Amino acid sequence: MKIYKLCCHQDLPISLEQSWDFFSDPRNLEKITPKELGFHITSDVSQGMRNGMLISYRLRLPTRNQMTWVTEIKHVDPPHGFVDEQRFGPYRFWYHEHRFRQVRDSVRCEDIVNYALPFGPLGRCAHALFVRRELEKIFNFRKVFLDDYFNTRKDGDG
Question: What does the pLDDT read at residue 142?
Fold first, then answer.
């Protein structure tokens, strides 16, 4: 099994507490995911993030088929980070670390994703042809959204 790694980071002009408030609320996932993916949370997330929490989503694949993805929240360390691990979904393996740390007058938000695809050589081919590019596109969308959201909002705006 070939395991791939994607690392992204950005600095946002917010406090560590503000970053935790935003990123630990699973409902914000819909905001930071490109609309064309049709991403929608289907589980109850009103209780807030906690170890062992299962979150299920519906999303649209590039083939336009709908699929269900279930992740489990692990290793919650407020306000410094958490991990989500896939339990059911498109990947053979998915381990996504979210890290937050104060850097001068901003917070560095880091995403470290280790993932593997099913189907052996066919999965490796799919990765080279489009999977890596699609993941990068999702994280680039997220970066642009977060820059706009946190750089244009006034304190206290929701």
Answer: 97
Q: Which residue did the predictor score with more confidence, 156 or 117?
A: 117
Q: Identify the DSSP state of 131.
A: I
Identify whether the C-beta of residue 29 lies closer than 8 Å to the C-beta of residue 143: no
Give the Cα-Cα-Cα angle 105, 107, 113 (nearest 5 degrees): 160
In angstroms, the CA 33 to CA 73 distance is 18
Q: What is the pTM of this model?
A: 0.90
pLDDT tens, residue by residue, 107-119: 999 999 999 999 9
Rg (Cα) of the chain, in Å, rounded?
Answer: 16
117 C-beta neighbours (distance < 10 Å), count: 20
What is the spatial distance between Cα 143 and Cα 135, in angstroms, rounded to a whole number?
A: 12
Task: With CA atoms as reference, report the closest residue to 111 among 67, 141, 151, 155.
Answer: 141
* Beta strands in 38-148, from DSSP E residues, in sequence order: 40-41, 54-60, 66-77, 81-88, 93-103, 106-116
Chain segment 27-79, per-residue pLDDT in tens: 999 999 999 999 999 999 988 899 999 999 999 876 678 999 999 999 999 99
**Class of CATH domain 4-152:** alpha beta
Helix (H) or strand (E) holding 143, with range, is: helix 132-152
